[in-house]
Amino acid sequence: MTTMPLTTAPLALPFEVSFDGPGLWYATRATGLVALLLLTLCVTLGVLTTVRFTSPKWPRFVTVGLHNNTSLLTAVFLALHVLTTVVDSYTDIRLTDAFLPFAANYRPVWLGLGTVASDLLIALIVTSLVRVRMGHRGWRAIHWLAYVSWPVSVVHALGTGTDPATVWGSALVLVCLGAVLGASVWRLATGWPERRGLRLAVATAVVAVVLAGWGWASSGPLAPGWSQRALAPVPPASATRAS
């Protein structure tokens, strides 16, 4: 009995793997926008949790459960956003740039803000895993980092992204701003009833930040030519034709 010689052939994939095509460019944009939406939902649910919102059709444990699950989804899409950004060879972004802010050669300010927001969320995740050993007071103090990471993420998305100048990109950012601002106004209206001065000071600070942010965005990321002024890369020709 003769045996046929075994031959090994290279595995042929039904698709082409490329690290410099428009696929990763689209993936980076998509994962970043989804992460921002999820972070916005997470912050909004966190505010609803602090005011102990509840109703017969919406018990409080639903809000807490959604808040926890949304936090996990935010971490997943944040990791995908970082991975696709680093793997994409179209821009020179190293893995260390995803953790060390303002150290990148490519657009260090806007990329650095995204790194700051990412580091804050990582600190929040790590401390949540060891919450029992930290104690509630220490964990709660660090938990406020989520509220800091959100505006930093918005500025990062506006300054770095190529989508805010579009109609749908502007609408997405406005939805995020409206959700968090609406929840914040509710928090100010219902919380700290004995501290009227504190509520007024916080409300004034929020209005000032919103006005300053709108002035910067309208003359910057939302104005024509921002990609060139911010040194944004020109997308591949195939991606330009497809968009």
UniProtKB/TrEMBL annotation:
Keyword Electron transport set for record: no
Residue ranges of every copy of the Ferric oxidoreductase domain listed in the record: 31-151
Coiled-coil parts of chain: none
InterPro entries named among the record's database cross-references: Fe3_Rdtase_TM_dom (IPR013130)
Tree of life domain: Bacteria
Location within or outside the cell: Membrane
Keyword set includes Transmembrane: yes
Transmembrane segments: 30-51, 72-90, 110-130, 142-159, 165-186, 198-217
Record membrane topology: Multi-pass membrane protein
Main location: membrane
Pfam families, per database record: Ferric_reduct
Keywords: Membrane, Transmembrane, Transmembrane helix
The name this protein goes by in its record: Ferric reductase-like transmembrane domain-containing protein
Species assigned in the record: Streptomyces caeni
